Amino acid sequence: MMFTVAIDGPAAAGKGTISKRVAAFFGFAHLDTGLIYRATGARVLAGEEALEAARSLRVEDLQRDDLRTTEVAQAASKVAVMPEVRAALVDFQKDFARREGGAVLDGRDIGTVICPDAEVKLFVTASDEIRAERRFLELSGKGQDVTREGVLEDLRIRDQRDREREAAPLAAAADAVLIDTSEMDIEEAVAVAISAVEAVLKR
Ligand code: CDP
Binning pLDDT at 50, 70 and 90, where does residue 60 land? Predict the structure, then answer.
């Protein structure tokens, strides 16, 4: 069976947790496409040229344990502006989406550019302050030296860059189900996402 769930939204809206849980529930594979951009950005921070890094990206690059920092996130959103970098990463994502057994992909342009024919499209949002608070707790919980103000600033700068770029900007597909998680805990948000997928599977 081929079945694609596309989950997009701004930074730290809860896409990662929702995607993992939806994939586990239905037995689908999961690809966090943000990691591809983070891994490319990390290699640029280490001195490589962006397109070269994107073209030679390997699975091991996605498994690095230093990708979840605000510095790497900023570098990711800067390489993500470059159309040739995005183009170099398209095939890998499209192939993953059409794999046998179902796939969940989360990112910024999955429902609009990578998988415009996805069976289910979700667009997950939350207020800036709530997203910043959740990300602050996540990063400080890992022992990173972050402040609430610094995290909020990172999200706002990236969201603006992601929304305003020419190539595959962050946007909800016209047929996406909007999920605002500002007033939901993670269990509620996951339940809403699972019911949206079930509604399509039942057809
Ligand atoms: O985890 P968080 O939502 O903060 O970010 P992420 O999903 O890991 O993505 C990091 C950056 O990669 C984003 O700010 C985007 O600039 C870029 N990205 C993208 O352009 N397209 C995607 N499909 C996924 C991420």
Answer: very high
CA-proximal residue: ligand 1, atom 2 (nearest) = 11
**Where do runs of H (alpha helix) occur along the chain?**
15-26, 33-45, 50-55, 59-62, 70-79, 83-97, 128-141, 148-164, 186-201
108 lines ligand 1 (CB under 6 A): yes
Cα(132)–Cα(144) distance, integer angstroms:
14
User: Could you report the per-residue pLDDT of 170-193, keeping only the tens digit for each?
Assistant: 999 999 999 999 999 999 999 999
Q: Supply the DSSP string of 155-191, one letter for each residue.
A: HHHHHHHHHH-SSS-S---TTPEEEE-TT--HHHHHH
Residue 202 C-alpha to ligand 1 middle, in angstroms? 31
How many alpha carbons lie under 13 Å from residue 111 in its C-beta half-sphere?
Answer: 22
pTM listed for this prediction: 0.97
Total number of residues shown for the chain: 203
What are the tokens at 92?
């890998």
* 132: Cβ contacts below 8 Å, ≥ 6 apart: 12, 148, 151, 152, 155
Per DSSP, the three-state class of 12 is coil
79 lines ligand 1 (CB under 6 A): no
Tokens of 8: 């997009």
